[in-house]
Amino acid sequence: MVMACAPLLLAACATSWEPAPDEPVVETRVRQPAQQDSAGTQVYPLRNPAVMELLTTAGAAEQRGDYEQAAALLERALRIQPRNPEVLQQMAEVQLHVRDYQQALNFAVRSYDVGPRVGEICSRNWRTISVAREYLGDRSGAAEAERRAGACMSTKPPSL
Amino acid sequence: MARQRKKKTPKKGRRKAASTRRWPARLWRVFLLLFGIAAGLLIPWVLYLDYQVTSEFEGRKWDLPSRVYARALEVYPGALLTPPDLAVELQAAGYHEAAQVSRPGQYRLAGDRAEVFRRAFRFQDGEVAPLHLRIRFAGQVVQSLANVANGESLDLVRLEPAEIASIYPLQKEDRTLVRIEEVPPLLVTGLQAVEDRNFKHHPGIDLHGIARAAWANLRAGRAVQGGSTLTQQLVKNFFLTQDRTVIRKVNEALMALLLELNYDKAEILEAYLNEVFLGQQGAYAVHGFGRASEFYFDEPVARLRPHQVALLIGLVKGPSYYNPRRHPERARQRRDLVLAAFEETGLLTPEQARAAAARGLGVTDSPRHRGSRYHAFVDLVQRQLAQVYAEEDLRTEGLRIFTTLSPSEQEKAQRAVTQGLDDLAQRGLPETLQGALVMADIASGEVRALVGDRDASRRGFNRAIHGRRQIGSVIKPLVYLLALEHSDDYNLLTPIEDEPITLRQPDGSTWSPDNYDGRSHGTVTLLEALTRSYNQATVRLGLNIGVSHLVNRLTQLGVSAEVDAVPSAFLGAVELTPLEVTQIYQSIAGSGFSVPLRSVIAVETAEGEELMRYPLRMMPQPRREAISVLNYALTRVVEDGTARALPGLLGKSVTLAGKTGTTNDRRDSWFVGYTRNRVAVAWVGEDDYSPAGVTGSNAAMRVWARLFRDLPIESVDLRVPDGAFYLWVDAASGRLSAEGCPGAVQIPYVDGSEPRDMTACGATALDRDKESLWKKWFGKDD
User: Chain B window 662-681: which residues touch A at a Cβ cutoff of 8 Å?
Assistant: First the structure.
């Protein structure tokens, strides 16, 4: 248990596998490490202003904890660009917030499949997958995902 | 009541007979007696009426039909949208074309520009204000958007969704509730001026009014005026009685008095505004000014102008006699009479009244289209909602239901079926053919269009949802998918045998499937067998995999129907509906991310409180790398397989994927096809299962092509996930080759299924590559 908990925040460890309501998993375990990993090398898809607007509004909704609104806005963005890895990843993170780990996993996998498979977004994909698998009880899968997150910065994108 | 009366009458008789008293005393006693009897009768009767009228009034929860909305069109620079499609969407939402766009609800098209004045609308995530916007198109794409008021450019605008249907209460009343504070003041005062001038002061009945009416009727020699107060009219409407017996009249008057004792004038008037009968739309009675305003003017009541208010008030007297659509002249006279009353009572100045009388009636040609065009899709909506809501709630709670329908795509889909089948009849196929079509957005699973009959107006058997038919070769891709998942044994160029085969059936009989062209083709590749839809090769392949795996996969992909695990299942001896087939192919077209098909996104109460949301949820299928390889193979069906006529029918050169399906004796024709974002399934056949002479490519594919000819198409997404890759191989031998080598093609492989042997040309090329890499890493001269 202690070993398995090591990658978790201590607060969460002390109580249960469920994160405390205000545990910032998305920030501390997905976004910040991914940003540190990326160290400037970012592969971003072309941006559509309509999608950008929805992403920004969804981000604001997420900030104030209105995850339902954030998800609805991201869904609108996905109707416009169903394969936008950034939107899919943000949706995965919103699912982490509401602790729907299965959907978090699924959206992150989809984001990875259609995304650049390298750079910051790749790292966020795998870190989300790792956290989700951990909460779903798949510890070895979580560790593997963590390893893949680390590799996002060194592998070159697979050619089509 | 009646029983009580009978009991007392005999008592009275006995007393009368026993009486021997003197006159004045007797008179007094008789008077007291009668008074007692009257009070004894009247008090319970009044209490009873009071109970009735208050319970009716307070328990009054009008049954409100649920409103069903299409998906809201998102307009943004880069959106695939043409001006004609925009017009279809706007008309469906009840917008009117105008030479000068000045009010919400109007639009104008001019070449590559459009102007739209969006009305205010309450979406499931909040209310938007009216917005006057200008759209510029560049070909089939929106180029830019701007707010006309301030000239600012806009990134994204959500248009008001079309109201596509109402789910009505069983007693067939249509109604939109209004509050007294939201209606124009002229409606409130004008109604009194015309129907009941003394409303503010009378206690429920108006003796002056009755006298005045009687006098007027006497002078005219016939009934020209009614003395009923608004309160009495309301009572009459509440209890749905039209008979004119004296007892009724007395009861009505009593109840009106009681209503006034219990409630204030505003409450009574508000109830009246919502209750009064104002028109008829087909089988549905239009009640209340809220709905009447939408029904006649396509406007919310709050925005009505004096001439429109006058018309509606005039209708109270006789909605059918003064029907402004059927009898415009009568309606006009009546309206002008009402305007005169407005003027006479000082509600309008003479100038205002004259200006209003100078206006046309202002009614729309026909009430906004509801239900008729979209009922096939609404069937699906009701089916999805029936899992959560009782039918009664849908009919009476005034829910607002946000759906996924695209009005412009629905119109094209219906046209594709109707005209497509007419066209097939011209080509010699039966005129009795029926068809169905389902189209969904791949990534979201949202159903955009659904057609269940060649005749859009016929409401009956919905073939898209309930037409369970054998699917024939449409099932084959799943057999090949299962094979591709066995990456140790199969890739797209693995040779298999297309040779006769005879199987013993569970019932002892034998089964020897034939190929469509009646021939066997010997050794073929997996890819050929799929793209040309060879039956014998498919059955042989399927037997290596096992029919139970096929049945399991169908279940996994959301098919709930019972499927027999017999070898004929490999050739599609499985009965599914077009909707179920769409669900299966959503998964394939969506690169293995399954999404349950949805027609409803959200449901909220009439007040805007969210009841239910159906969020996007995806389920990744295992072995998505094999699905991506299958995707490629299905584009080859269109390129050089059984659907190779499709690009010609479409007149577009894009990469599409698809599969034809034909059943025994040509009873059913199927075509499933997808682009980057849309998957659609078309079915054609006879309702009575008789041989129809149809094949996948001669019937359903033509219907499918008619639809996609009219849609913007983007090529299929052929990117493969981790665990699959494209390789240059020699098409004939299946060996590794290289770009530029003779016979070399680029084909996707599941990791582990790739060939090991190499053609001579490929080997040379590989050496060259190695050398060049060596140079790249260590050499200076590259």
Answer: 677
